[in-house]
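Entry 14. Ran structure prediction on the chain below.
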Amino acid sequence: MKKACVIGWPIEHSRSPLIHNYWLKKYGIDAAYEKKPVEPKDVSNFIVNLAHSEFIGCNVTIPHKESVFEAIGEADEIARRLGAVNTVYLKNGKVRGTNTDGEGFIASLRYSYPAFSLKGKTAIIVGAGGAAKAIVGALLDEGVGRIGVINRTRERILGLRGQFGSHVFEINEDTANDELGNCELLVNTTSQGMHGQPPLDLEIQSLNRDAVVADIVYTPLETVFLEKARNQGSPVLGGLGMLLHQAVRGFELWFGVKPEVTKELYELVAADIQKVRKQ
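Output, structure tokens:
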């Protein structure tokens, strides 16, 4: 029987088994997907020996994405650009890696707002970490014209600009109101607003009301940030869609079927998130 897994430390929180086992059942595939706790010190060995293990591939979650990239034999162009891997698979007996975070965000945006075009648009990203990097890269690939970045550490913004070029620019306190008024997509890529974290501290009264406001956080399903945007009349996008859509390519690479993200799957995972929250 084919087996895939998700690795992380800790790993208990992962919803990946719920997603992939739903698809395995739906498509009648005799395979399994499970959580695999892997300590940071063991990541390199796990990846190097994957071809000789019981697994045909794995997803990678916090805090292993960068260390898996360093350990992997062959990473594709997207993973190399980001310096991070979230999906590992075998091809011709070799361990290979990619990163589907950016495409997961774009697919989620298209699923919820199919008429929304990114071509030539101005986007604002809050945060400058790994998730920001994945989304900035994906947005530029989709033809976004300008991407402003809000982040506490200016050096990280300059790092993004150095990596992605002049389309990326810094937003500070003096320029924030004007840029929010011109923006057409606003994305929180930080963990602020997640259960156990303080809410995102960003004033959005000056935001263009037609701008889509997105958050990659999915616990809770709607953050205080998104609630504030919704109350202002903005269209919003929660983080659960990105989680579901980023899983599609890994499943296809491992099991040979491109799965569909459906309302039923969304509701299944959403119910699990809400159930855990109530406990």
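The domain at 102-240 is CATH 3.40.50.720 (Rossmann fold). Will compare against last week's run tomorrow.
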